Fold this sequence. Notes:
By secondary structure, this protein is α/β, with parallel strands linked by helices. The protein has two domains: 4-85, Alpha-Beta Plaits, CATH 3.30.70; 92-261, Rossmann fold (3-Layer(aba) Sandwich), CATH 3.40.50. The protein has nine helices and 14 strands. It has helices at 19-29, 54-64, 80-88, 109-121, 138-148, 184-189, 193-204, 214-219, 244-252, and strands at 4-12, 33-39, 44-51, 70-76, 93-94, 101-105, 126-131, 153-155, 157-158, 163-165, 179-183, 208-212, 230-235, 259-261. Strand 2 (33-39) and strand 3 form a beta hairpin. Helix 3 runs antiparallel to helix 4 and helix 4 crosses helix 5 (138-148). The longest helix has 13 residues, at 109-121. The radius of gyration is 22 Å and the shape is elongated.
Amino acid sequence: MEKREWYLEYEIHKNRPGLLGDISSLLGMLSINIVTINGVDDRRRGLLLLCDNNEQIERLESILHTMDNITVTKLREPKLRDRLAVRHGRYIQRDADDKKTFRFVRDELGLLVDFMAELFKQEGHKLIGIRGMPRVGKTESVVASSVCANKRWLFVSSTLLKQTVRSQLIEDEYNEDNLFIIDGIVSTRRASERHWQLVREIMRLPAVKVVEHPDILVRNSEYTLDDFDYIIELRNDPDEEITYDLVEEQQFNTSDFSSFDF
Length: 262
C-alpha cells in the first residue's frame, strides 16, 4: 500500500518538558513516521507525517484530543502553505477576504521565492500578479524563483536594467516552459499596439505569466483581477501602503535608464 502524507499542527498551551517526546513516542507506537517538524508560530508546531492508512490518523486524532497541553488546529493532507510553513517556520499571510491574495514583507524574501518557485513548477496556464513599491524586490524575487523552478524567464516589459518593451518573440521563446514577466505600468504607458498583440498572444499560452503592478494593467486593458490565479503583495514592512501614484511617478520620472523596443 502506498504511504500518504499528512500535516499535523497543534497549538501548545503549556510547553512542559518532554511534550514533543511524548507526541513523537505516540507517533512511533502508531507506526506513523515524522518527515519534517518545525515551529510555525510562537505557540504552534507543525509536522509532516507519513503513514499507511487513514485508521492510523483517526487513532492519532482521537488520542491527541485527550491531551490537555495542546489543541490540534490542523490534521489534513498537506497543502503548499503547510509544506512551506514547516520548511520556513512561519505561515504565509493570506488575505481573509480574498483567498488568492498572499502578503509578504522584505524579511520574508526566502519564503516568497520558495512559494513562487512551487507555483512556477506547476504545469499549464497560471497568471500571477505582484504588487509592491519600487525597489522592494519584486522583479528580483520573480527571477530568483524562476531559477529555483528551473524556468527560463523572459521580460516582455520591464525596467529592471533598461526599460524593455518587446513587440515580438523569436520562435523558441514561445515555449510553454518559459516564464513571461510583464510590467503593468510599462505595458500600459509606453507600449505600442504591436506590443499589446504580443501580450495577448502570451496570455493565451498555457504557461506561467507574472504581471508586476497588476492593478495598472487591469485599469488600462481588457483583463480583470478575476483573471489572476494569485495576487502577491510585497512590502518593506507590514504597515506600508502600496500607492500607485508614487509608483508610476518613480517609474517614469527617472533619468538613469534608456528605453528600447525590439
